[in-house]
Specification:
Helices cover 50% and strands 14% of the residues. With 705 residues, it is an alpha+beta fold. Among the domains are: 91 residues, no CATH class; 94 residues, Methane Monooxygenase Hydroxylase, Chain G, domain 1; 59 residues, no CATH class; 198 residues, PH-domain like (Roll), CATH 2.30.29. Helix 4 packs across helix 6, helix 4 runs parallel beside helix 14 and helix 17 packs across helix 18. The longest helix is centred in the middle third of the chain and has 76 residues. Belongs to the TRAFAC class myosin-kinesin ATPase superfamily. Myosin family.
Length: 705
């Protein structure tokens, strides 16, 4: 033994039990398979390509070997995290405040020196004595029992103890709680492939097997590493390679084992997804930022999505990216701004941005196309323009000659026209004949557009010298034509009104000062308001004995003594004049037309004096009335009686009236600013006429009403 330890060239023989032979056989087969597969992978130059469906058993076997340390299995997922979280790592370095998934606190249980599960398991495998799986579990409970991510049966709550056995322990990590059984941990962790087996394989005649056991490994005298240490070192080497590169994680999931189309094996796909850890990768991806890009590249690609950054943004790239994020409506939690990069958390946000960019490309393409077409068309236009200029040179020369000819002819015509204009008042000759004809034609056209529309109109445009005789004839003919058209268009009512107007002109023109105000409005035969119409109609039927009512109007009667005003209704029938009380509608007077006379003044007032003969004993003297439409009332009296002498117009400043017993009274007529009828201090009736404009306005209002 002593010489063997010093010389290391002596080989001892030892008998093994049957169980140890089984372990050696399994270790040899696993080690041979592993070396053969590694050799095959390196020989093919495809280190990272593990065929998913073909090597599931190998992957499952590898996972079984390290079942004692699930956090080392997590190292495989760290490879995915290194790819998917490369942006998160960069964001952490730049911003230092990213909230991403950090499994270090969990994997520290396995990788921590002298205290982790790996160190405890290696120590238990190499210590002298008879180590067992339960002694390993006891050591872990003593060293890791207080760790927040480690749960053992002895220190767990009653509820948790019901879900796990005494030979099990539980780890709490990102994917949930995982329970492990310690049976077989130490056996699977030990490298039971003895050196003599390695030496025998290295001297084998099979070239493939010999290449799997190189001589360098055989010459090494170091203690063989345990399985978990080998796997940890292999993953660490792989992580160092990945961290210095930009790897892409590509997984191919086969829908079936038959390599045919249109067949989808759900169980097979679920099995691949489960053992490839894709769901865990998705959880890792959700927790961090799946996309990162420098500000310059991001702005260069997506600057067309904002008016403020398109086509060129001259400020810092970071500010331009911030403008794009605000324009695209990024939520606060969807992205982060680092020192040199933007970090986007969700793929949906990036996809929406990319979709907007793809949609915008058509708009940009249309702009580029428009600019290119414009440039091409401008080149064509310049070519055509140069040709047109040449053609225009000859055309303008031809047109200039034609213009010269036309101007010469126009100058001759103008000279001829000016000579005719100078001699336009002379007898027709060769020069002015056309001018005289043109003057006549223009005068007739102008006259046709300005003819009077009514025979009362006296407007007529002046005529030139050669048209004056024709103008007089046409004027008389047009007046006759308008008068005839007016006569033909008259109905019975209008003809009667015109007859009354003619009678009014014959009686009152130049005899009554307010005659001009009565010319315009038509004469009305009823001036009584509608609320009195029923009572007046009843009186006409019952009291007038079949006499026809020709005119009615409200009047004011003044007493013979005291001149107190009283409201009355003046009714004119074919035989008499009736005066009714304005309140009771009772008859106050009936005066036959063949026995009375009417007297009015030539001023603007409405005073009418009805002179009553003495034989009418019941009427005590003359009646004094104030009639608003005095001329209208007189015209109806003259029309009914057919006697113009029945109405007398006096032009004196006073008017006398008869009282009883031969006495007389006086009515004084004056002019003032306001119309009024009052009793003067002398005892006479004083009538004050208003100015013409005021009286005219009142008469116009009452006449049209």
């Amino acid at each position: 033994m002593e010489r063997g330890l010093h010389d290391r060239d002596r080989v001892g023989l030892q008998d093994q039990v049957l169980l140890e032979d089984y372990h050696s056989e399994d270790a040899f087969i696993d080690n041979l398979r592993k070396r053969f597969q590694e050799n095959l992978i390196y020989a093919n130059g495809n280190v990272a390509n593990i065929r998913d469906s073909d090597n599931f058993r190998t992957v499952q076997r590898a996972m079984t070997v390290i079942e004692i340390l699930d956090q080392e299995q997590r190292q495989i997922l760290d490879i995915v995290a290194a790819v998917l979280h490369m942006g998160n790592v960069g964001f952490t370095e730049e911003e230092g405040k990213a909230k991403i998934l950090k499994p270090e606190s969990v994997t520290a249980i396995a990788k921590e020196k002298h205290k982790g599960i790996v160190a405890l398991m290696d120590e238990e495998c190499l210590r002298p004595g008879d180590p067992t799986d339960l002694s390993f579990l006891t050591k872990m409970n003593d060293n890791l029992g207080s760790h927040p991510h480690y749960i053992c049966h002895s220190r767990a709550s009653t509820t948790v103890q019901k879900t796990m056995g005494r030979d099990e322990f539980r780890l709490v990590h990102y994917a949930g709680d995982v329970t492990y059984s310690v049976h077989g941990f130490l056996d699977k962790n030990n490298d039971l492939l003895f050196r003599d087996l390695k030496e025998a394989m290295a001297e084998c005649s099979n070239g493939i097997i010999k290449s799997c056991f190189p001589a360098a490994d055989i010459g090494s005298k170091r203690r063989p590493e345990t399985a978990v240490t080998q796997f940890k070192n292999s993953l660490n080497n792989l992580m160092e390679i990945l961290m210095c590169k930009e790897p892409s994680y590509i997984r191919c999931i086969k829908p079936n084992d038959l390599q045919t189309h249109s067949q989808f094996d759900v169980e097979l796909v679920r099995h691949q997804v489960k053992y490839l850890g894709l769901m865990e990768n998705l959880r890792v991806r959700r927790a961090g930022f799946a996309y990162r890009r420098t500000y310059e590249l991001f702005l260069q690609r997506y600057k067309c999505l904002s008016r403020q950054t398109w086509p060129h943004y001259h400020g810092p790239a970071k500010d331009g990216v911030q403008i794009l994020a605000d324009e695209l409506g990024y939520e606060k939690d969807d992205y982060r701004m680092g020192k040199t990069k933007i970090f986007i958390r969700f793929p949906k946000t990036l996809f929406e941005t990319e979709d907007a960019f793809q949609a915008k490309k058509h708009y940009l393409a249309s702009i580029i196309q428009a600019r290119w077409k414009g440039r091409r068309q401008r080149r064509v236009y310049l070519e055509i323009r140069a040709k047109i200029i040449v053609g225009q040179t000859y055309i303008r020369r031809y047109l200039a000659l034609q213009e010269l000819k036309r101007r010469r002819e126009a100058a001759a015509k103008i000279r001829f026209f000016i000579k005719g204009f100078i001699t336009r008042h002379d007898a027709p000759n060769e020069c002015n004949r056309s001018f005289i004809q043109l003057t006549k034609r223009h005068w007739l056209m102008k006259l046709s557009k300005s003819l009077p529309a009514s025979f009362m109109g006296h407007t007529w445009i002046p005529a030139p010298k050669h048209c004056q005789e024709a103008s007089l004839l046409l004027r008389d003919m047009h007046k006759l034509h308008l008068a005839r058209c007016y006569r033909v268009g008259l109905n019975a009512e209008k003809k009667r009104q015109l007859d009354l107007k003619v009678l009014c002109e014959a009686v009152f023109k130049n005899n009554k000062r307010n005659y001009p105000q009565s010319v315009g409005p038509w004469f009305v035969d009823d001036r009584i308001a509608k609320q009195h119409a029923t009572q007046i109609s009843n009186f006409t039927v019952t009291q007038m004995n079949g006499e026809k009512l020709h005119y009615s109007t409200p009047v004011v009667k003044y007493d013979r003594r005291g001149y107190k005003p009283r409201e009355r209704f003046f009714l004119l029938s074919s035989k008499a004049v009736y005066l009714l009380d304005g309140k009771t509608y009772k008859q106050k007077h009936r005066l036959p037309l063949d026995k009375i006379d009417f007297c009015i003044t030539n001023e603007r007032d409405g005073i009418m004096l009805i002179r009553i003969p003495l034989e009418l004993k019941k009427d005590k003297g003359d009646l004094i009335l104030d009639i608003p439409d005095i001329i209208e009332c007189c015209i109806w009296i003259l029309d009914v009686t057919k006697n113009r002498s029945i109405v007398n117009i006096v032009d004196t400043g006073s008017l006398s009236h008869n009282l009883v017993r031969g006495k007389t009274g006086v009515i004084e007529i004056q002019t003032g600013p306001q119309p009024s009828i009052t009793r003067a201090k002398s005892g006479n009736l004083l009538v004050v006429n208003c100015w013409p404009i005021i009286r005219y306005a009142r008469e116009r209002t009452e006449g049209t009403g």
